[in-house]
Amino acid sequence: MSQPVVSATPSSQAQWQALASQLNIEGRAYVNGAYQWAAGGDTFVSISPIDGRELAAVASCGQADADQAVTAARQVFERGTWSRLAPADRKAVLIRFAELIERHGDELALLETLDMGKPISHARKVDVPATARAIRWTAEAIDKVYDELAPTPHDQIGMISREPMGVVAAIVPWNFPMIMASWKIAPALATGNSVILKPSEKSPLTAIRLAALAQEAGIPAGVFNVLPGYGHTVGKALALHMDVDCLVFTGSTNVAKQLMIYAGQSNMKRVWLEAGGKSPNIVFADAPDLDKAAAEAAGAIAFNQGEVCTAGTRLLVEESIREDFTARVCKALKAWRPGHPLDPATTCGAIVDQAQLDRIIEYIGIGQAEGARLVEGGERVMQETGGLFIQPTVFGGVNNRMRIASEEIFGPVLSVIGFQSAEEAVAIANDSIYGLAAAVWTANINTAHKVAKALRAGSVWINHYDGGDMTAPFGGFKQSGNGRDKSVHAFDKYTELKATWLMLD
Ligand code: NAD
Questions:
Q1: Is residue 6 part of a domain?
Q2: In terms of domains, do 343 and 237 share one?
């Protein structure tokens, strides 16, 4: 596949558009070291939410493709080409993979933006570096983790070792296609597994491109496979497969539950889930800097068009400052007006597809029907572009039991809820089926720690929103999931523990 060679990152919409017109987009699956169309010949069209343009025909994989990929993945695993390589050698290959991702950063960012509508500046400055960093950090960690010896009597040796699972299937969503994939494939590959990546049908293009870069980096044929297609076809085939050892998933809670059922109906494969959220962002009147808190509350709902699992969708504000703070958030949202995603100045891009836009608009209607007060946004905009854009939207007067406050919308729709005390704030925050993330803003160190401890969430941020890096585990309490991505804790998901006991004569 010939790809355009660019010397410098484009700095204008026209330059990005010129680069887009030169792209030769690959839509085939990648199995056992080669690109190929689906066995049944099925395809679907990747449509850009920016302007409705058809980007590429993409292989729509099914059972036969899943079988072929699993067989290839199993065979290479058994041969040991990758699985028995020294960790330091796998590390070297994965670092080359990260370097190639960086070298092809403009092209990957462009594919991501065209495919799912996020602003090019974010794709280039957030998604590409975060993907490369996840792979490099994990690679660098893998030859620094040790196994254990049990505290045995003198005449015995108890060795506790970690072994790769075998064949890992990774099913990922469309909101951060590359980053979500990297959080799975980096630890899965680093620990020696063979991997089959199933990207979302709404955003398959970067995953497909990553396969060629993985091959160029030196990952052997069969070790990393990419099967684009629908959840109910190839996703289900992988989840029910008798020879997939481990299924890792990021996506909605409903599908996550279904995957647990598939595992129970098949081979009891390990299932690790990162699912939905409805994260509370709690602002006390004594927050150190209310303008900063408002700016971050705006970003927490508008970044990535609100299509973020950790989006701060429930803004809990101490009653004494609720009106003033809501006004500050609405003002801060002016920095998040929708714009053309290829314009480097754009901060809020297009919604991924028509179905998702319809869902957001439906929820805005539900909020109004429930009696919440629409205080900002609420309108579809830029229709003349043929793209799918909506204004960041704020509802006041929200009660936590309303559907807009309890159900995941996955769009830029904020619910502002008042509270009188820390106890009430915690009770509202925890009154959710989800427990992915939460934030608390206060100058009082006791309040900060007491609230942080009481929050039932996998990530808690104090006086900022959405902190963390590869050193910290990421995942959910309750119906936001199980297991953790990122950090050395992620290795737990991709390895079996073995106890080997030796009796000395
Ligand atoms: P989704 O659950 O609809 O789809 C996720 C993936 O599952 C896709 O690849 C899809 O094709 C596949 N799938 C769907 N049905 C399937 C089935 N029956 N069998 C096998 N695979 C199936 O989610 P989405 O709309 O792509 O993404 C949005 C969701 O992802 C939101 O709920 C969001 O909160 C969640 N998310 C969570 C995290 C996290 O880390 N917790 C991160 C990002 C997104």
A1: no
A2: no
DSSP of 210-260: HHHHHHHHTPPTTTEEE----IIIIIHHHHT-TT--EEEEES-HHHHHHHH
Report the candidate in 118, 179, 130 with the shortest Cα–Cα distance to residue 346.
118
The Cα-based distances of 189 to 182, 321, 493 in angstroms read: 10, 49, 12
CATH code where residue 72 lies: 3.40.605.10
Ligand 1 atom with least separation from CA of 408 = 32
410 lines ligand 1 (CB under 6 A): yes
What pLDDT does residue 3 have?
52
Residues 289 and 420 in one domain: yes
What is the Å distance from ligand 1's center to 401 Cα? 24
Residues 270 and 299 in one domain: no
Same domain for 259 and 333, yes or no, is no
Q: Which of 61, 246, 309, 348 is catalytic?
A: 309
The pLDDT value recorded for residue 241 is: 99
Residue burial 184-213, b: 16+ Cβ < 10 Å; e: rest: bbbbbbbbbbbbbbbbbbbbbbbbbbbbbb
- Say yes or no: 255 and 325 in one domain: no
Cα–Cα distance for residue pair 97/128, rounded to 1 Å: 12
Q: Are residues 250 and 390 in the same domain?
A: no
Containing domain of residue 423, as a range?
Answer: 280-468
61 is catalytic: no
Phi-psi region of 170 (alpha: psi -120 to 50; beta: other; left: phi over 0): beta
Q: Which amino acid is at 57?
A: A
d(CA 326, CA 373): 12
- pLDDT, tens digit, for every residue of 384-406? 999 999 999 999 999 999 999 99
Give the mutation target among 131, 232, 234, 250 for probing the ligand 1 site: most ligand atoms within 8 A of CB.
Answer: 250
**CA angle, corner 308, sides to 307 and 311, nearest 5?**
110
User: Are 124 and 72 found together in one domain?
Assistant: yes
Tally of domains in the chain: 2
How does pLDDT run across 186-239, given as a tens digit for each residue? 999 999 999 999 999 999 999 999 999 999 999 999 999 999 999 999 999 999
Residue 184 carries which side chain, given as an amino acid letter?
K
* Dist CA 289 CA 43 (whole Å): 52
Tell me the CATH number at 297.
Answer: 3.40.309.10
Q: How far is the CA of 171 from the centre of ligand 1 (A)?
A: 8
The low-confidence residues of the chain, meaning pLDDT below 70, are 1-7
